[in-house]
């Protein structure tokens, strides 16, 4: 299945929020390709999806954070339009500015 995973992790509680943010990002990096700071494209099988879903739900705080998963059909991948820079996001540099 082709997925688009997006998240917004609250960093109001800086230490705990930053920790959740790193863990959610690490989980997504393990399964997909970062296309923007908190947006990942993934091509997963059913087993991989179940593993990732459980991992993400274990990391986020449902009272503070947001996790959105878009299930796209295979033809969606061929219809993606992208404009602008294609270089990966420098996560280390961006994390330091939080």
Q: Can you put this structure into words, describing what you see?
A:
This protein is of the alpha+beta class. The protein has one domain (2-75): Alpha-Beta Plaits, CATH 3.30.70. 44% of the residues lie in helices and 23% in strands. It is built from four helices and four strands, in the order βαββαβαα. It has helices spanning 14-31, 46-59, 74-78, 91-96; strands spanning 2-8, 33-36, 39-43, 66-72. The chain has a four-stranded antiparallel sheet with strand order 2-3-1-4. Helix 1 runs antiparallel to helix 2 (46-59). The longest helix has 18 residues, at 14-31. Mean pLDDT is 87; it is low at 92-98.
Number of domains: 1
Strand content: 15-25%
Number of strands: 4
Q: Are there runs of 5+ residues with pLDDT below 50, and where?
A: 92-98
Kindly provide the radius of gyration, computed on alpha-carbon positions and rounded to a whole number of angstroms. 14 Å
Give the biggest beta sheet.
Answer: 4 strands, antiparallel
User: What series of H and E elements makes up the topology?
Assistant: EHEEHEHH
What would you say the CATH architecture is? 2-Layer Sandwich
Strand order of the largest sheet: 2-3-1-4
Quaternary structure? single chain
Secondary structure tally, helices: 4
């Amino acid at each position: 299945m082709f997925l688009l995973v997006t998240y917004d992790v609250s960093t109001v509680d800086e230490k705990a929020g930053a920790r959740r943010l790193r863990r959610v990002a690490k989980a997504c990096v393990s399964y997909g390709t970062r296309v923007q700071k908190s947006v990942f494209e993934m091509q997963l099988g059913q087993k991989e999806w179940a593993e990732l879903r459980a991992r993400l739900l274990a990391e986020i705080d449902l009272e503070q954070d947001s996790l959105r998963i878009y299930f796209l059909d295979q033809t969606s991948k061929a219809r993606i339009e992208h404009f602008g820079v294609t270089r990966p996001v420098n996560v280390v540099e961006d994390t330091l500015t939080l």
